[in-house]
Structure formats: structure tokens, C-alpha cells
Specification:
Length: about 160
Amino acid sequence: MTDRGNVPQVSQYGSVDPAPPSPVSEIDSLAGRLCDESLPMFQRMRAVFSLRNQRSDEACLALCRGFESESALLRHEIAYVLGQMQNTVALPTLIDRLEDASEHVMVRHEAAEAMGAIGDRSVIPTLERFSTDPLPEVAESCVVALDLLAWVNNAEFEETEY
């Protein structure tokens, strides 16, 4: 990707991220970088992936604070990594993003998909309500999330049948 020989690495989640994780590991420092509108987007993205890789509730909640960002791109990426983390502490924030009609459509779509990826069936009523959203990106993402939840539930049922 660069002339220095740096090669994108596959993350522990199986994705090639748009920025490598920051070498900083302190959650408050990473959260500060994430929310600092004066920093370049690349540095803020590095904070996103460092927080994701920590997998803790505290890191997950720090990522949720990043939804205050002015950047729809960053908010979209945060929703995506929250889905990767599959941590239920993110659900209230993801529900808020989906329910906010003034939120960018791509953030709402990614919040819906993250809710499905987390796998907690408590979000089904919310996803059902927005499956008829006037924005097809939102509605279709809610349907995909509902289908994923049904598939996971069915797969778990099939595994326990034997």
C-alpha cells in the first residue's frame, strides 16, 4: 500500500481495516483521540481499531462516545466495529442511532446491521419497526439484521436438537 513496504494486515476479526490500530492502549487517551475533531481522520480511525481490539465494555462504551463526531464516515465505521465486537453494551447507543431520523443514512444502516451481528434478540421489535423505514438502505438493513438473528437462533436450535 505504501512505498515503505507496509502491508495491510488482516485483523483478529478477519477484516482489513482502513487504518492500523494505534500503538496507544490507554482507553481514555484513545477516546480523546477518537473525539478530537482537530486530528486527521487517519489518527482517529487508528483509535477506533485500537479500542475495538481491546474487546472490553469500557472500550466499547468509549467507541459509543465517538458517535458525537461530526464525521458521518467515522460514525459509520464505529457502528461497523461495534458489530464486530458483538458486545451488548453497545445496543442502547446503536438503537439511538437507528431511531434518529436526522442521522446519516449510512450510519443508520450500519447501526441496524451491527444490532443483528451482536445477536441479542431484544432488538427484534426495534428492527421490525424500522424494517419499513422510508429509506431503503435502513429498511433493507433491518431486514438483513432480522434474518441474521433468525438464522443464528435457528442454527443454535439445530445444534442443540441432537
